[in-house]
Amino acid sequence: MSLDSAAAVGPPVGMEVRLSSNEAPFGPSPRAVSAMTAAVPEAHRYCDDQATELRAAIAAHEDRDVEEIAVGTGSAALLMDAIGHECRDGGDVLTFERAFIVYRLAARNAGVDYVEVATGGPAVDDAGGYQRSVDALVGAIDEHTRLVVVDNPGNPTGAHLDADELTTLVEGTPRHVTLVIDEAYHQFAVGHRGYATVAELGLEHPRMLVMRTFSKAHALAGMRVGYVMGPRSLVGEVDAWRTRFNVAAPAQAAAVASLDDTEHLEATVRGTLAGREQVERGLADLGVPHTPSLGNFVTFEVDGPAAPVIDAFADQGVGVRGLLPYDMPSSIRVTVGTPDEIDRFLTAAATVLV
Ligand SMILES: Cc1ncc(COP(=O)(O)O)c(C=O)c1O
Predict the structure, then answer these.
(1) Which of 14, 84, 93, 181 is the right S-S partner for 107, CB 3.0 to 4.6 Å?
(2) How many domains is the chain partitioned into structurally?
(3) Pick from 294, 296, 325: which is nearest to 101 by CA?
(4) Nearest alpha carbon to residue 228 among 240, 219, 220
(5) pLDDT, tens digit, for every residue of 248-262?
(6) Which residue minimizes the CA distance to atom 2 of ligand 1?
């Protein structure tokens, strides 16, 4: 499996309709735009290394103490730091098959083994999808396991653990093992198919870190802001490992303003959920098997290799994501765009896929 940077990241360049990177299609909050614009003339100053205002805003939003929050340049950077830190003396990273690729990259960088628990899939005739067995994951924890990480919901599979399964995972993970729950897409999942966040369920574990990002529902992917929540001693240790002055001042300002703009956030989530239904309905109408998704994307299956299909979409100006790095050679992930972008995608799909 290729883990070079070109295989792991980056949308195809020059696509008119860019549905390859799970970005929010409606743009950032106007308040965030004002705040980051206002921060630009101060670019000669270093940003606040402690991100005091942003961490306070997140803490208030999450009803936690400031010391229980650390911020990073996207949750991907925090995942790299957290996994690197926790595995600094060795031990395996354990996760589900086809989990978010950054976990694998982090394990590679840390020089530790990456252990995957098999999942179901692919979707066939819309039945199933990439189901995960939490019992199998908990059962796979052994004396070598240092850290367990789960994307909930998962990218690119869209699969999720429901409230009971998440509770089983948290309760079943030994107290000395670090547990990372990555909730990058939680705003698109809450209230659907039994999904619940760690916070909603009030789950506790002495070594649990919950990852969040401003890249998805907050529509600030280009600003690179994410955060981690957990017990203060653990968060403090991970924070001590990060690059200093990591989150740039305009990014900090944008995130603070975005947290305040619940109206924009809710409109983004509403529009994305409506779009997700539009994509899933459109694919179903075309008879294309796909996984019911709880993210801002849908993963569908094609006959044979995905690469020529992706090229055919690209010929029509539509960028979608191949999943070879996930060992999913016949799967394609499409991000939920604006209604117009979805129309463009479905129009192209009608010729490319049928
Ligand atoms: C499951 C998951 N976690 C984390 C991230 C990282 O997001 P960011 O680094 O932009 O915060 C992504 C991005 O696609 C993701 O899919």
Answers:
(1) 93
(2) 2
(3) 325
(4) 240
(5) 999 999 999 999 999
(6) 184
Task: Tell me: pLDDT of 39 over 90.
Answer: yes
pLDDT on residue 9: 42
Q: Give the β-pairing of 145-151 and 92-96.
A: parallel
Instruction: State the pLDDT at residue 13.
Output: 73
CATH number of 100's domain = 3.40.640.10
For residues 115 and 207, state if they share a domain.
yes
Give helix then strand counts, H and E, for the chain.
13, 13
**Based on the domain organization, do 121 and 219 belong to the same domain?**
yes
Do 78 and 193 fall into the same domain? yes
| 285 class by beta-carbon count within 10 Å (0-12 exposed, 13-18 middle, 19+ buried) | exposed
Average pLDDT along the chain: 94
Structure confidence by residue, pLDDT tens digits, 202-240: 999 999 999 999 999 999 999 999 999 999 999 999 999
Last residue in a domain, options 240, 261, 282? 261
The ligand 1 atom nearest the CA atom of 156: 16
Residues lining ligand 1, Cβ inside 6 A: 22, 74-76, 100, 151, 155, 182, 184, 213, 215, 221, 226
Atom number, ligand 1, closest to the C-alpha of residue 77: 9
Query: Which residues span the domain enclosing 101?
Result: 30-261
Question: Of 244, 261, 278, which residue is a domain's last?
Answer: 261
Give the pLDDT score at 127.
Answer: 53
